[in-house]
Design a protein that fits this description.
This protein has a domain of 165 residues: Bacterial extracellular solute-binding protein, family 7 (D-Maltodextrin-Binding Protein, domain 2, 3-Layer(aba) Sandwich), CATH 3.40.190. Helices cover 52% and strands 13% of the residues. The strands form two sheets. It has a six-stranded mixed sheet. It has a five-stranded mixed sheet with strand order 2-1-3-10-4, with helices on both faces. Strand 6, helix 6 and strand 7 form a beta-alpha-beta unit. Helix 2 packs antiparallel against helix 10, helix 4 crosses helix 5 and helix 4 packs across helix 12.
Length: 366
C-alpha cells in the first residue's frame, strides 16, 4: 500500500513536471521570437562612402551596433547623395526618412545657431577639452535640450582631431592676399574670413576637388592631412596652412530620431550610445596617428609646403573671431546658455591644459 502510494506520487510528480516543461516549451518560442526580432534602420551621412575620418566613423558605428546587439539592430549606411543630399541629414532624421544620421553639428548653424558649439568654434576647446565638456561639464544635457524640439537625440560619434587652416593655390604673405579670395569654409570661420576680405563658399565634400581644380574656389578648408589627402587636394594646391584656429576640434555628430530611440528597449538604447562613444574615442586616436603619417607623406611625396599665416594675418583673424563670436551670441536667441556653459568649461580646463599639454610639450622639445 505504502509502496504503491509512493509510485503514484512519483508518477504524479513526473506528470506535473512534464506539464510544466510543456508549458515552458510553449512559452519559450514567443520569448525567443521577441528577443531575436531584427530591427532595421537607415543611417544617412554628409560624407562620401568610407571617406577617411568621418566616413569611416559612420560605417564603424553601424558595424558596432549590429555586433553589440547580436544582430537585433542593423543599421544600413547611405553616403551623401544616395538617399538625401549631404546637408539634409538633420531634416531627414528629424522627419523619420532615416533613423540615424552622421554629420557635423555646425552644418545646422542656419537652423539651430547654437549647434556650432557641438562641433567647434574659433579659438575654442581642443578635442579632449570638448569631450570633457560634453561628458562632465553639462554639454550633453544642453545638446539634448537643443535638439529635442526637432525630434533628435545627438551623440558624439567620431572626431577628426585638430584641423588645418586650408589649402591655398597661392601663398598668403600678407593680409591683403585674402582680399577677394574664394575659400570653401564652414561654420563661423567663414564669417571671419568674409570680414577679412575673402569670399566664403559652402559646398559638400564631394564637390571640393572639382571646385578647386576648375577655379570656382581658390582655397579649401576641410579637416586634417589624412582626410584632405584622401580627397587628393595635394594634387591641385601646394600651400597648406595651419593650424586651423577657426576649427580646433572635429567632433562628429551622430543623430538618432528621438521617437525611434525611445521605442528601443533599454539595452539597445545603451548599445547605440556606447557604439557612438566608442567610435569617438577610436576615431580621435586614429586621426592623430593618420594625420601625423599623412602630413609627412604630403611633404615628402607631393612637395606640399606646410606653412603658418604671417603675423598680421593671424592677429587680424583672432581679433575678428572675438567680434564675430560676440555678435553671433547676441544676435541668436538660445545661444547664450550654451555659450556660457562652453566658456565656463574652457575656463575650468584651460589652466590644466596649459600645464599638462602646452608647457609639457615646450619642456619635451626644449
Amino acid at each position: 500500500m505504502s509502496n504503491s502510494g509512493n509510485i503514484s506520487r512519483r508518477h504524479a510528480l513526473k506528470l506535473a513536471g512534464a506539464g510544466l516543461a510543456g508549458t515552458a516549451a510553449l512559452a519559450t518560442p514567443a520569448i525567443a521570437s521577441d528577443a531575436s526580432k531584427v530591427i532595421r534602420w537607415k543611417m544617412v551621412t554628409s560624407w562620401p562612402k568610407n571617406l577617411p575620418g568621418p566616413g569611416v566613423s559612420a560605417q564603424r558605428i553601424c558595424d558596432r551596433i549590429k555586433t553589440m546587439s547580436n544582430g537585433r539592430l542593423e543599421v544600413d549606411l547611405y553616403s551623401a547623395g544616395e538617399l538625401v543630399p549631404a546637408f539634409e541629414v538633420f531634416d531627414a532624421v528629424a522627419g523619420g526618412a532615416a533613423q540615424m544620421g552622421h554629420s557635423a553639428a555646425f552644418y545646422w548653424q542656419g537652423k539651430v545657431p547654437a549647434s556650432v558649439f557641438f562641433t567647434t568654434v574659433p579659438y575654442g576647446l581642443t578635442p579632449n577639452e570638448h569631450s570633457t565638456w560634453i561628458e562632465f561639464g553639462g554639454g550633453q544635457e544642453l545638446w539634448d535640450e537643443l535638439y529635442a524640439p526637432f525630434n533628435l537625440k545627438p551623440f558624439m560619434g567620431g572626431n577628426t582631431a585638430g584641423t588645418m587652416a586650408g589649402w591655398f593655390k597661392d601663398p598668403v604673405t600678407k593680409l591683403d592676399d585674402l582680399q577677394g579670395l574664394k575659400i570653401r569654409i564652414q561654420g563661423l570661420g567663414g564669417e571671419i574670413m568674409r570680414r577679412a576680405g575673402a569670399t566664403p563658399v559652402t559646398m559638400p565634400t564631394s564637390e571640393m576637388y572639382s571646385a578647386m581644380q576648375s577655379g570656382v574656389v581658390d582655397a579649401i578648408e576641410f579637416l586634417g592631412p589624412a582626410s584632405d589627402g584622401a580627397l587628393g587636394l595635394q594634387k591641385i594646391a601646394k600651400h597648406y596652412y595651419g593650424p586651423g584656429a577657426n576649427k580646433p576640434n572635429g567632433t562628429g555628430e551622430a543623430t538618432v530620431n528621438l521617437e525611434e530611440y525611445n521605442a528601443l528597449p533599454a539595452d539597445l538604447q545603451m548599445i547605440v550610445a556606447e557604439a557612438c562613444r566608442s567610435e569617438h574615442a577610436q576615431a580621435l586616436a586614429e586621426a592623430t596617428w593618420h594625420n601625423a603619417v599623412a602630413l609627412a607623406n604630403l611633404q615628402s611625396k607631393y612637395d606640399v609646403q606646410v606653412l603658418g599665416f604671417p603675423a598680421d594675418v593671424t592677429a587680424e583673424l583672432k581679433r575678428l573671431s572675438a567680434v564675430v563670436m560676440d555678435e553671433f551670441v547676441e544676435e541668436h536667441e538660445g545661444t547664450q546658455k550654451v555659450f556660457e556653459s562652453y566658456n565656463k568649461a574652457k575656463g575650468t580646463v584651460s589652466q590644466w591644459s596649459d600645464l599638462s599639454i602646452r608647457d609639457y610639450l615646450i619642456a619635451r622639445d626644449s
